[in-house]
Structure formats: structure tokens, C-alpha cells
Amino acid sequence: MMAVNAHIAIVICAVLLDLVLGDPRALPHPVVGIGELISALEGPLRRRIPNLRVAGVVLLIVTVGVCYALAASLIYAAYLLAPAAGFIASLYLAWVSLAARSLHEESAKVARALRNGDLPAARLALSYIVGRETAELDEPEIIRGAVETVAENTGDGVIAPLFYLVLGGPALAIAYKAVNTLDSMVGYKNERYLEFGWASARFDDLANYLPARLTGLLMVLAAPMCGLNGGGAWRILRRDGRNHSSPNSGFPEAAAAGALGVRLGGANRYFGKVVEKPTIGDPLLPLSQASYEGVVRLMYGSEALLVAAWVVLLALL
Fold it and tell me: I need a surface site. Which of 141, 165, 270, 279 has the fewest CB within 10 A?
């Protein structure tokens, strides 16, 4: 019972720390170390393993394995020193695995620039959080980019790490962050990474399979509490959840689009080329500041629902 109570306390405290303080940028951050490990491994693996897919599989196994082992060893060693030290180590790793506050802060820079009537600043702020070109976007398209980013990252930046934290503790949450970082660094479909990053991209899809669908359902349930359309969220989730090149990203985007009454997807420009993506949702309302504010409420509401449901489930069991 003590272990369960400690786990509950770690999860709740980590969520609160993230909400109040965001990323502890003045302290060592595991994701920075994960990125450095990936960069250090890439060159030697490419040189020593001619088959790039095999090299990519080794990169995935070594990176995730090392990150999980280091996190688990740190927690174990800290608990050997003192229960309080173990709790603090666990809490810190849990805290840095979550990103709701950071996602809100970075996307809010876009909304703030638009409120100030500064389109160039809004385009620049958006360029830091999306992969598409932003230099020629008008205000509705800028808002679409911000809404899509918050919706998608509610899945892989908020709900997924929280899901793995709840399921297996801080070490598993850090292992998930390693998977996510691998995908963001080598999971590209370009000449350099198509083969080498194949395993990382596919494993990221697998790791996000359940969390993405859970995120969609949580958004449906959270929508009425956030002053949004729960019925619309459910309808669009079912209809358009698979209208995306990613096997996972469409689910939170569809639920958000339905809750907000807006249409997402459509044309995006990448490296000078226009890519037509499937549309998600119906344009019942124009994309506006209210759309952005609504998707942020959905993010926080979904996170709160997951924590509450987990605590209630443990209490019932």
C-alpha cells in the first residue's frame, strides 16, 4: 500500500509541478541527454553496420534500453540512500517527462502575437512548433497550425508520457521520452533517414497507438466540461480519426476539431512544395483565437480526467 500511495503522490506532484513551473530549464534535463546519446551513436552505427535498417534497430534498442536502465538505476540508488531521496529522484524524472505547460507556453506565443496584430511575429513563433513553412500564412492558417500542434501534442507530449508514467513509473516514462526523441531526430522520410530511422518511426507509432486513441476519448469526455461540443467531438473522432498520414495523430486532432466546430488539415507547404492533406472536421465556426483557447482547455481537461480516472480506479481496486 505504501508503494501505491507513493506512486500516486509522485504522479500527482509531477503533474502539478509541470502545470505550475513547466520544464525545469535551469536543471539537467534527461531529454537533452537522450538527444546527445542519439547523436553520439548515429555516426558509429552508420559506419559499422552497412545495413541502415539494422543500424536503426540497434540505435532504437540501445537508446531506449540505456535510458530505461539509467532511470531505474538512479531511482534504485536514491532509495538505497534514503526513502526521501528515492521519492525526489522519482518525482524529478516524472516531472520532466510531462510537457503540458511547455506546450501551452510555446503555442501561446503565436496567439499573443496575433492578438497584438503582429503577423510576422506569429508566423515566426509558429515556425518553432510546426514543420510546415509559415512565412506566407494568413491569420486563420496560423491559428490552424497552432490548434493542430496543441491537439497532436496533447497525445504524444502530455497524455502518452502520463499514460506510461501511470503504467510503469518514471523509468518507463523516460523510456517513452527516448522513443519520442528518436522519432523527432531520425524518424524522417527523407534520403538520410528513410532506412536508418525506420525502426524508430515505427516503434514511435506503436508506443503512441493506445495513448492517441485514449487522448481522443478523453477529449470527447472533457469537451462539455470545457464549454465545447462533446457530441461533435465524438462524431468527428469516429468519422475523421484516420484522416491523417500518421496512424495516431488524427485521433486527437479529430476530437479537437469536432469539439471546436472547425476544420483542420488541408494544404501545407514543405520545402517549397504544397502537400494536400485530408481535411478533419467541419467548418461550422471560423478558426479564431477562441479555437486556440478551446484546444488548450481540452489539453488540460484531458490530462485532469486521466489522472482522476486512474486515482478512482486504484481506489476501487
Answer: 270
